[in-house]
Every structure is written in structure tokens, then in C-alpha cells.
Amino acid sequence: MKFIKWLLALVVTLILLVTVYLTVFFDPNDFKPEIVDAVKKQTGRELVITDDLSWTFFPVIGINLGGVSLSNPEGFTPKAMLEVNKAVAEVALMPLFSQQIEIAELSLDGATINLVTRKNGTSSFDGLSGDNSKKAATPAAETSSNAKLNDINIGGISITNTQINMIDEAKKQTQVFTLKSFTLGEFALEQFAPIAFEFSATMPDMTVSSEGKGELKLSRDFTQLVVNGLKIDTVVEGESIPNKKLETSISLATQIALDKQQLSVDIAQLSAASITAAGKVGVNYATKIPQINADFQVGDIDLDTLLPKMDTAAATEQAPAASTPAVEPDLSALKQLDVKLKLTVKSIKVANLSTQNWLMDVGIKNGVLDLTKLNADLYQGKLLVSAQVDARQAVASYQFDKKVTGVQIRPLLKDAADVDLLAGTANFDVKGKGKSLIPEQLKKNLLANGHFDINDGALYGVNIPQMIRSAQAKLKGNLSPETKEERKTDFSSLTGSFSLDNGVATNPDLAMSSPLLRLAGKGTANLLTEALDYRLTTSLVNSLKGQGGSDKDALAGIDIPLAITGTFQKPEYALDTKALLNNQLKEETDKAKEKLKDSLLKKLGGF
Fold it and tell me: Residues 172, 165: contact at Cβ < 8 Å?
């Protein structure tokens, strides 16, 4: 026991002697001029320490400093690059003898960092790294790699009122990032410690405020970092933001394998505006281009509520901007991505077009985006798409294969283009390729071929039987007003193939059949001007009975020319009455010839 008492007395005596020595003979303020001169030689900057440096001792050893500033290069505004109001670092003394670090307190308050980029391209960072920076770093790195710590304990870390001002003189813009607070609670290896932060940013076109809290744990061998229960709430405001304000919230857990340079994130809940999602993300950042694998499940997405609403007056005011030449979108960032994404979405509504049950597989690698699969429910039918976008050249190229089966075409056309032209159950397939993603160039450069068939449908805006009946009545001299009937032509099938080149879809084999009519012909649809130009021939299979006709119609079997012109929004239908008259006269002449022939045969005894 006496030995232990003497040993403790000796230790306390040594600590007291060290304390007296440091206090009386080793004033840290004596080194301020040397520190200032060293910084001046290394960087050419002025370091100012206005407050006195002070020691703290047993049970912790540390130093307090304040009033610190480091200047920007000469001629920069503001003059100071870094200003610190107060900094405190305190380390427990006794555990150091056992290669254990116990940090009683680390705190930083009132730090301001001014990062300036001038018009000539120089910045606040110029000159900070001297010639000996790399040489000095090497032994330090070796020393740290050879050092081994048995434990780390931190009483707490606090950073408050830290502000970063990013000033771009060329753009005359200033962005302000403020870390109002960051705290790390009591921390020890292999134990979870609480963390919290509050952050805000002011940029030219938006403001951001964010706060979060959670807990983290570091393994004893420094290879695994785990963050649990991290919840971050963010508010973004600005004119370019949907509805000028966007609120987001995310709850996640993450694991980082520091030795393997791998990261995994489990997102329990993500919400942005009215959109909710969950999923997992894995990142391997040991490779030159980080490899990212993601799998997300998303709820309902209504993009119409997020996109800005533009009234006619606003559109008129912005009309001159449309004359500005369009440029290709910059997709060069795709070259720096290696991503695989699986995505399911409950429903998507955009431009009033509704789809459900999305299932999508996407890959991005070496500047090529591959949409290997996209399935969705579309107006009681199915949509299946595969596509590829190649962004390795300045002007991107693309190709796609699209199939639509069992879709109700009328509500689809109404919602997608406000066109009430066609009804029925549609099947549609098309393959295409092209270059350029500028909307107008996309229409011009697209080369495609496809086929369609629509069953049990109707053509809206025209009643072909009524048109024929009216034309027939007028040819007979009946000029009485037409009866009011719905402008609709029912059909059992409508089929055709098409090719698309230079913005014009050519349909050489349009065919429509119904119990009353047969219609066939060809035409074009211009995607740039939305102009229609079809020349068709229709013929009656039977009488028009049931649609205002007689039991046996005089025009049955006669080819009747029909033209469709106008636009997608306002198609125009017209019968060629002149050709109709000629065809009818020819039919009647042929019938008269047959009657005369039969009469002569009878008179000649059947010869």
C-alpha cells in the first residue's frame, strides 16, 4: 500500500511540475510570432491571433484560442479568408499513457470562411499549399499509419455559427452556407453516439434549410461506420421550385465499409411534396467510377401538381424566348456513371395522362443509358418498352421498341392530346431510331416503322353513312335539310401499317370494316404541322337500313371516294360527289346493259 501511495504521489508531483513548467516557463503566446511567420512563409498570407492562447490542465490538457484570422490573397475582398471567434480542444491526460484518446471537449464557434473566385480565375485557395506540402505529408502519413490506438472516447463535439461565403466575381453571385450547429454526443468505439445538425443555404435562385438527427457507431478497427435512425427534414424555396416550395423528409440507415470502400443505404421512408418512396442503395467507390445499385418502390406521382401552371398571358410574354436556338442537352455526365436501377411506381400522371404499376430496369455505363424493360398499365391495356440512349457523341442517338396491347384509345387520346378522334381497343407496335434530343429535331430525324389494329371502335367527327345518304339524296334533287345524327362511324376493325421519316407518317394500307361499310386507302400525317391528308375509298356492303336508309340501297357495291384533311385537332371529311355521280351512272349503265342483254337473249331463244 505504501508503494502505491508513493507511486501516486510521484505521478501527481510530476503532473504538478509539468503544469508549473508549462505555466511559468512555457507560455504558448511566446510562439505566436513564430506561427505567424511560418504561415507567412508557407502561404504568403497574414495570420492574426488577437486573443491570448491559454492552457488547461488536469484532468484534461488542452488549449483555448480565439480571435484567429487568415487573410485572402492580396487584393481580394473580403480581406479575411478565415475568421474564428473561439476554439477549444481538451484531451484527458492520464489515458494518453495507455495509448487511449479521451477528448473532453472539441468546440468551434463563430467561424467564417470567405472563398472568392475572381474574374481572372484566381481563387482563395491559390498559394495555400507550399512546395514542401507533399514532403511534409509523407512522414505524417507514415507516422499515423504505424500508430495504434487502444480506444477513443469523446466527451462531445460542438460546432456552432459556422458560415461559408462562396463569392463568384465573374457571375456577381454570392452563395452563403451556414452550419448553425453540429453536435456529437458522448462517443466511444463500438458504441452508438447521438449526432444532430442544423444547416441552411442561400443561393441566387433558392434557399435551403435542413435539420437532422440520428446516431453513429465506429468499429474498434476503424473499418466499419454505422449510422442508424438518421432523419433529415429539408425545405427548399425559390421561383424555380415546383409551387415555389418543396418539403422533403428522409429516414435511413447506412453502413460504410471503410476498408472495402463500400456503402449501403436502407431508406425506410422518403417523401418529397406528395411523393413517397422507400428503397435500398449500394455504392462501391473503390473503382475509378463508383458503381451504384439502387432499388426503389415509389407511390403515386402526380407531376401535374408539381409542374408550373402557365397562363396565356405568361405564354405570350415568354414567346420571344422561343426564337432562341435550341441546343442539345449536355449528357456528358452519363460517362461518369455506372448505375443499375430497379424502379416500381404505383402510378404516374403527367400532362393529364395516367399510367399505373410501373416496373422499370435501367442501366447507365460508359455514356450509354439502357432501358432494358419498362412495363406499365395504360388505359385498361399494357405498355411494354425497351430503349437505349447513346450519349458518347455530342449529339445523342437513340433507338426504341414499343408495344401497346388492349388499350382503350379514346380516353388515351383525350387525356394525352385533347383529341376526340378515335375509339376502340388498340394494339400498337413501333420500332424506331434517330439522333438529337431537341424536340423539333427529334421529330424530323426519327425513323420508325410500325403497325396498328383497333377493334370494336368508332371514328368520331364524321358519320360516313349519313354523308353517303345525304349525297345520294342531293343527287336525286332532294335538297331538304339533313337529319341531326351523332357524328360517329362505328367499325369492327381498323388496321394499317406506317413508316415515319422526316416528321411525316405514311400509312399506305389503311383498312376499315363494319357491317355496313368497307373503307380502304392511304394517306399521311405530318407530326410537325399536325396536317392530315388521306385519300380513301368507301363502299356499302348492304343497305343503310337502321341508319336511315332503305332496305336495298342503290349505292350498294359502288366505290365512293372520301378525303380526310385538316389537322389532328380538327379533321375534315369530304365525299367526292362528282366521282360518286360518275360511279353511280356507270353502275346504272352497266345494269341497263345487262337488262338489254337478257331481253335480247330471250328474243333469240336463249342463244
Answer: no
Which of 155-164, 437-446, 568-577 is the least confident region? 568-577
The number of beta carbons lying within 10 Å of the beta carbon of residue 6 is 10
Structure-block grid coordinates of residue 253? 440507415
Distance CA 547, CA 105 (A): 93
**Quick one: pLDDT band at residue 105, thresholds 50, 70, 90?**
confident
Q: Provide the residue type at 61 as one letter.
A: I
d(CA 428, CA 416): 16
The pLDDT score that the predictor gives to residue 195 is 95
Place of cell 442508424: 228
Contact 575, 491 (CB under 8 A): no
Confidence of residue 56 (pLDDT cuts 50, 70, 90): low
For β-strands 112-117 and 80-92, DSSP reports them as: antiparallel
User: Which residue in 95, 113, 112, 115 sits closest to 104, CA to CA?
Assistant: 95
**What does the block give as the cell for 469?**
345518304
What cell does 288 get?
475509378
- C-alpha distances in angstroms, 599 versus 590, 591, 592, 604? 14, 12, 11, 9
Give the mean pLDDT of 428-455: 93
Do the bridges between strand 193-203 and strand 173-184 make them parallel or antiparallel, or are there none, so unpaired?
A: antiparallel
Segment among 211-220, 473-482, 531-540 with least mean pLDDT: 473-482
Per DSSP, what are the bridge partners of residue 383? 376, 404
Cell of 150: 487502444
Cell representation of residue 223: 473499418
Residue 470 banded pLDDT, cuts 50, 70, 90: confident
Could you write out the three-class secondary structure of 329-374?
A: CCCHHHHHCEEEEEEEEEEEEECCEEEEEEEEEEEEECCEEEEEEE
Whole-model pTM: value is: 0.74
Q: What cell does 581 get? A: 355521280
Which pairing describes strands 151-154 and 100-109: parallel, antiparallel, or unpaired? parallel
Q: Give whole-number Cα distances, 423 to 17, 492, 516, in Å.
A: 97, 11, 18
DSSP state of 323: G
